[in-house]
Amino acid sequence: MASRTHASSTHTHAKEPATESSSPVVYMTTPPEVTVPVPPPGFVPVRLAQYRGYFPKAQQTHALPGAIKDLESFGDYSKVLGAAAPPPAPLAEALKREIKWAELRRAAETFFVYTRTMEVVSWKNTLGLLQQLDRAYQVVKTQAPDALTSHLELEQLLDAARRIGQRGASTRTRNKASKKGAEGEGK
Predict the structure, then answer these.
(1) Residue 42 lies inside a defined structural domain of this protein
(2) For residue 162, how far is the Cα from the chain centroid?
(3) Are residues 108 and 167 in the same domain?
(4) Cα–Cα distance between 6 and 37 in angstroms, integer?
(5) Could you list the mean pLDDT of each consecutive 10-residue stretch along the chain, which spans 187 residues?
(6) pLDDT in the model for residue 14
(7) Do 108 and 181 reside in the same domain of the chain?
(8) Closest listed residue to residue 26, CA positions, set 124, 160, 167
(9) Phi, psi of 28 (to 5 degrees)
(10) What is the pTM of this model?
């Protein structure tokens, strides 16, 4: 299976994130160096809605290890259950495979929550630094704009929040006007 490596420095625990009332910017740790598996080439995901009701329930997952042991020690399986029952060895292997997929999914979900949390806390703290930079940048942009002409990507990053805010404000204004128009028609 292919994998994608995220190289970085050694990971240490993150400091407590800054709260609204705290003033110092908290610097988050660098992400850990991990190898993130990627699906094999040609993988096409199924529409999970088609499999509603097929996900193993907690009770079933909990019973899997014991069921596997029973299958592996069921000496007269074929005699007791007959030819209609699937062969015990392939069934035990299928159950073991399910355990591995379930463990992998749970680990991936836990890691996703961890990375998403670290990303958002890190970004929130980074925004404080960007706001500080933006104040200085805007002063220089007003007083000596030629000094910044070769830093267009940095300006684009600093302007992104303003553009997003402006779009949000115009959307709220349109929605408010639309709502007033709808209320006026309904009276």
Answers:
(1) no
(2) 26
(3) no
(4) 11
(5) 44 47 58 89 94 92 96 94 94 96 94 91 89 92 89 90 83 87 69
(6) 44
(7) no
(8) 124
(9) -80, 160
(10) 0.64
Distance of alpha carbon 14 from alpha carbon 123, whole angstroms: 13
The string of pLDDT tens digits covering residues 144-165 is 988 888 888 998 999 887 888 8
Residue 112 CA to residue 108 CA, distance in Å, equals 6
102 and 119 both lie in a single domain: yes
Quick one: pLDDT at residue 32? 86
Closest Cα partner for 15 from 34, 30, 35?
A: 30
Angle, nearest 10°, between helix axes 88-143 and 58-73?
140
72 & 120 share domain? yes
Q: What is the chain's length?
A: 187
Can you list the positions of beta strands (E) in the chain? 3-6, 34-37
Shared domain check, 175 and 140:
no
For 77, the domain range is 54-146
For 139-176, the three-class secondary structure string (H helix, E strand, C coil) is HHHHHCHHHHCCCHHHHHHHHHHHHHHHHHHHHHHHHH
30 within a domain of the structure (yes/no)? no
**Tokens describing residue 154:** 């940095």
Domain count, the chain: 2
